[in-house]
Amino acid sequence: MPTYDFDGQVAFVTGAGRGQGRSHALKYAEHGADVVVTGVSRGIETSQYPLASAADLATTARLVEEAGGRALSVHADVRDEAAVAAAVDAGMLAK
Questions:
Q1: pLDDT tens profile 18-53
Q2: Element (H or E) spanning 16, and its range?
Q3: By three-state DSSP, how is residue 22 classified?
Q4: Which residue among 37, 50, 67, 80 sits deepest, i.e. has the most Cβ atoms within 10 Å of its Cβ?
Q5: DSSP string, the chain
Q6: pLDDT of residue 1
Q7: CB environment 42-55: b (16+ within 10 A), e (fewer)
Q8: Please, what sign has the CA dihedral across residues 69, 74, 77, 82?
Q9: Model's pTM, two decimal places?
Q10: Nearest CA to 59 among 94, 21, 11?
C-alpha cells in the first residue's frame, strides 16, 4: 500500500456528509491533511433520494478531527460556483 504525506496541506472534499465523500475526507486526515468538508445539506429537486444532512456533515467534521486533522465544515452546493469559491476562500483563510 502506498504511503501518502499530506502534512501541511488542505484537502477540499465535496459531498463529504457520508459515503465516498466522508471516506475520502477521513483518508486525507489520516495522512496529515486539514480538510474542508462540504455538502448541500438539504434536499434538491432533481435528487430522487435524500442527501446527507447538516448533522451528517458535522459528523464527518468530527471524524476528521478524531483522525488527526483540522476540519472546516461549509454548506455549499457544487452547482453554485460562487458558493464553492467562498468555501475555498474560507478554507484558505482558516489555513
A1: 999 999 999 999 999 999 999 987 766 776 677 788
A2: none
A3: helix
A4: 37
A5: ------TT-EEEESSTTSHHHHHHHHHHHHTT-EEEEEE--S--TT-SSPPPPHHHHHHHHHHHHHTT--EEEEE--TT-HHHHHHHHHHHHHH-
A6: 61
A7: eeeeeeeeeebbee
A8: negative
A9: 0.88
A10: 21
- Grid coordinates 452546493 are at which residue? 77
Q: Which residue has the cell 480538510?
A: 35
Q: What is the C-alpha to C-alpha distance for residues 80 and 59, in angstroms, rounded to an integer?
A: 24
Q: What is the mean pLDDT of residues 5-11?
A: 93
Three cell numbers written together for 80: 453554485
Beta bridge partners of 39: 75
Residue type, 68: G
